[in-house]
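Late entry, written up from scratch paper. The run itself happened at the end of the previous shift, but nothing got recorded in the book at the time, so transcribing now.
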Amino acid sequence: MFLIGQYDSPFTRRVAIALRLYGLAFEQQPWSTFGEGDKIAPYNPLRRVPTLLLDGDEALIESTAILDYLDELVGPEKAMIAARGPERRRALKICALATGLGDKAVSLVYERVLRKEPSKIWVDRCESQVGGVLDVLEQERAGVITPYWFGTRIGHADIAVACVLRFAGEAHPALFPAFRSPRSTGVKSRNTSSPSATSTARVFSPPRRCLATSEMNLPSGTPTRTAA
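Output as recorded:
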């Protein structure tokens, strides 16, 4: 299997950590969605990461869909999420909140580095959504007494929250101070210190301000979106 994407993407990183924890062999192709989008396009016309290439040239896109395949591959006993029922739905909700927060955090990066004049309306909206998600994650985590979100074993929810909070903290340190989300930050610290996590760590490096709004054909205020 080939995993396309750089590890400073929280979406790519959560897939890479799962692959390592599952003991599945893979090679990484660290293509950038900006600098090497043309290389990604034959496998994913959205030119987004992560994209996972399987044997036989089948390509899976979006981290949630990729993890669903990996869970099926390793079986329900080893899968890092419940197979069914309320616990599965709760885990999927935490993952969706985390990846949604990551999506907004990347949107704010693009707004800052790819536009001469960021849209205040869009920035305010993204920051409001980010704050709302952080509050909900803190509330959810407050009711958990186990080391991990759903027991004594690491799961996709733990990995998603850890990867996204690390990325967001590096990309927007003023917006994501650790004291704002102490419980969620504890999840990040616990889940980013394992060998599987440290081996996929990469400091976030924003795209250079090399594409003016006019070159992207994006009018001021057009929402930007990233991968999941």
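The chain has a mean pLDDT of 83.
(Scratch paper discarded after transcription.)
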